[in-house]
Amino acid sequence: AGWRVGASVRAGRVSLGRYFTRGDLLLCQVTSKTYGHPEVVPLGAADFAVGGPLPRESWVLPHRLVTAHEDVVVRTVGVLSAERLGNLRAAVCRLIQSAA
Predict the structure, then answer these.
(1) Bridge partners, residue 29, by sequence
(2) How many CB atoms lie within 10 A of CB 57?
(3) Cβ atoms within 10 Å, residue 12
(4) Is the separation of the CB atoms in 25 and 73 below 8 Å?
């Protein structure tokens, strides 16, 4: 359990996922481009409690959420620190609350 950064089957796809029961995941896209979105969350070497860093400067896009099965994850790159996870949760919650 916990939030992990992993690489999916599609080349170049990295996502941040929360594992739930029966292999279900909530994924948030990680990218090397910010696309000018105001809510991007930076993801650097210091943001990992275990593993990391990613090979390029990266950002989490909290507005890009999808669900998937754990079989799409090829490998785990690392586990986020509690501080960065808190920042990410706050960004996702802000986006959901502002959509109302």
Answers:
(1) 15, 61
(2) 12
(3) 8
(4) yes
Distance in angstroms (rounded) separating the CA atoms of residues 55 and 72: 21
Give the predicted TM-score (pTM) of the model. Answer: 0.78
Tokens of 100: 């109302």
3-state secondary structure of 72: helix
Tell me the DSSP string of 11-55.
TT-EEEEEE-GGGEEEEEEEES--TT-TT-EEE-GGGEEEE---S
Closest CA to 51 of 70, 24, 75: 75
Cα-Cα-Cα-Cα dihedral sign, residues 76, 78, 82, 88: negative
List pLDDT tens digits, range 39-69.
888 889 998 888 888 888 889 898 888 888 8
Are 14 and 30 in contact, with CB atoms under 8 Å apart? yes
- 24 HSE (CA, 13 A, CB side): 6
